[in-house]
Write a structure and sequence with these properties.
Shape: elongated
Number of helices: 2
Helix content: over 70%
Distance between the termini: 68 Å
Largest sheet: none
């Protein structure tokens, strides 16, 4: 039981050392993720459409 209590104490001490990102940093990171996700989805959609049309043209 002592090891478990020690683990939680050490974990709490390590969490105090963490520098958490600010609101502006989080918002800008979320924007980057959303924009990059939309771009990748659009590229994959175009590739899928081209492959589909190519295969239907062959058969």
């Amino acid at each position: 039981m002592k090891k478990i209590i020690q683990f939680f104490k050490e974990s709490y001490a390590e969490l105090k050392k963490v520098v958490w990102p600010g609101r502006d940093d989080v918002i800008s990171s979320v924007k980057v993720v959303i924009i990059s996700t939309v771009i990748v989805a659009a590229i994959l959609g175009v590739i899928d459409l081209l492959l589909f049309r190519g295969i239907t043209a062959l058969f």
